[in-house]
Amino acid sequence: MAYITAYEYYENNGNPPENANWGSYQYISLEDIINNFLLMYDGNHSLVNNEERYKVLFHAKRAIQELNYDAFKETKVLQLDVCADLRFVLPPDYVNWIRISLWENGSLFPMTENIQAMSSDAYLQDNDCRILFDIDGNILRPQNSELDLSRLNNTNRSIYLNQNSPYHGQQGWNIDGGWFFEYPIGARFGLNTETANQNPTFRIDQKAGVINFSSGMSEKSCVLEYVSDGLYNGDNTKVTVNKLFEEYIYAYIEYAILSSKYGVQEYIIKRTQKNKSALLRNAKIRMSNIHPGRLLMNLRGQAKWLK
Question: Which is it for the CA torsion 80, 235, 280, 27, positive or negative?
Answer without folding.
Answer: negative
